[in-house]
Each structure stands twice: as C-alpha cells, then as structure tokens.
C-alpha cells in the first residue's frame, strides 16, 4: 500500500525574521540559526527513515535554501524539485521591509494587528490571508495533492502563510482557527493522507 505522505516545512529563520521586519515577497537569506534549523529538519526526517519522490518550493530563496539543506541531510541532493510563486509568502504590500514596531507607531497597534491577524483584511497594496489561500490552495489541489494521492512521498518547503493555507484545509480549521495556528521555522509537519485526501495522521516534529 502506498504511503500518501506529505511533509510541510516552513523555511528556517531569515535575516528579516531576526530583525522583526515584514518580509513578504522580498528575498533575504537565512541566518546561521536558519541554516541550522534547515539541517535539523533534514536530520529529523532522515531519523524517521523518510525518503521523497518529489519536492515543491516557492520562488523565494529562503524556502529553496531550506529545502536544499534538508535534502542534503536526507541524502537526496538531486531530488526533482518544482518551484512556483504560488507557494510564496503572503505579500505584505506597503508594510514590506518595515519593522513591526515602526509599523505600529505609524498606523497604530490596533490597525497593524488587524492586518496581521484578520483573515480577509489586506494591508495597503498587499494580500490578506484569504488572498494567499486563493492562490495557494488551487495550486495544492491541482499540482501537489495528485502526486500524494498517486502514492508519491512529497516534501513542501515554503512560508508561514502559504503553508497556513494548506494546513487550514488538511486540519479542517476555520478562518479563526488558522489565524491562531503558529508554524515554527524549520519544523517539518508529517501528514499521511487517506485515499479521499483527508488526514489519517499528523506528526509535528517540533522539539
């Protein structure tokens, strides 16, 4: 019987995560900690005896580098990898590049909180989480899920908000529930799916 294995992993800590900046579609690299997190992710997956048939990642280097480092640890440096912008982080628009504390000073604590934590209110010039779901979820359904249902073992390295879109569906979370769902940097989440694409088991590899 095929495994129908899907592993989601948020990229390791980036330079802008460290500086508390809104990153979005900007392309900073990983910090030393981020590199270590990515390697640890690969080591954890290897310790479970997992190998993969295909990988997906975003068009941004922090997700691509996390995937590369993890695959090196697993011993699959040449795994077929598909890169697509639809797995990119949420676009923060006018907030991009701003320190989160500076943004609060400019627009007020309450307004910034709404932009960050509401489901369907976008920041100026940017995407809401609902907008991110609207581009990420169809890509998952059309391109990623069929591979899993064929019995391929699939690894996805992407971003906090693009992965939230997938987690929302996999874990059947409400718009309110997904806003509270934190995804730690560099921590793989291992899903095994049933033939009807619902989740049979989930294993968060934190700690």
From TrEMBL:
Record site feature (Transition state stabilizer), residues: 159
GO terms under biological process: gluconeogenesis; glycolytic process
Enzyme Commission no: 5.4.2.11
Key words, A-Z: Gluconeogenesis, Glycolysis, Isomerase
Residues that bind substrate: 10-17, 23-24, 62, 89-92, 100, 116-117, 160-161
Keyword Iron among record annotations: no
Function: Catalyzes the interconversion of 2-phosphoglycerate and 3-phosphoglycerate.
Protein name in UniProt: 2,3-bisphosphoglycerate-dependent phosphoglycerate mutase
Organism field: Blastochloris viridis
Lineage: Bacteria, Pseudomonadati, Pseudomonadota, Alphaproteobacteria, Hyphomicrobiales
Gene it is expressed from: gpmA
């Amino acid at each position: 019987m095929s495994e129908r294995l899907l592993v989601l992993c948020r990229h390791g800590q980036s330079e802008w995560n460290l500086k508390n900046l809104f990153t979005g579609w900007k392309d900073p690299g990983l910090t030393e900690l981020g590199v270590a997190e990515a390697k640890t992710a690969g080591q954890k997956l290897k310790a479970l005896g997992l190998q993969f048939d295909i990988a997906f990642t975003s068009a941004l280097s922090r997700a691509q580098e996390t995937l590369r480092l993890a695959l090196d640890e697993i011993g699959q440096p040449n795994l077929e990898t598909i890169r697509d912008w639809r797995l990119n982080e949420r676009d923060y628009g006018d907030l991009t590049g701003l320190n989160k504390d500076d943004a609060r000073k400019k627009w007020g604590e309450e307004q910034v909180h709404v932009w960050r934590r509401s489901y369907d209110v976008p920041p100026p010039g940017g995407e809401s989480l609902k907008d991110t779901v609207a581009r990420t979820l169809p890509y998952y359904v059309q391109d990623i899920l069929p591979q899993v249902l064929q019995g391929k073992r699939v690894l996805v390295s992407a971003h906090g908000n693009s992965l939230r879109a997938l987690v929302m569906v996999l874990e059947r979370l409400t718009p309110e529930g997904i806003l509270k769902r934190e995804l730690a940097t560099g921590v793989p989440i291992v899903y095994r799916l049933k033939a009807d694409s619902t989740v049979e088991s989930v294993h968060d590899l934190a700690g």
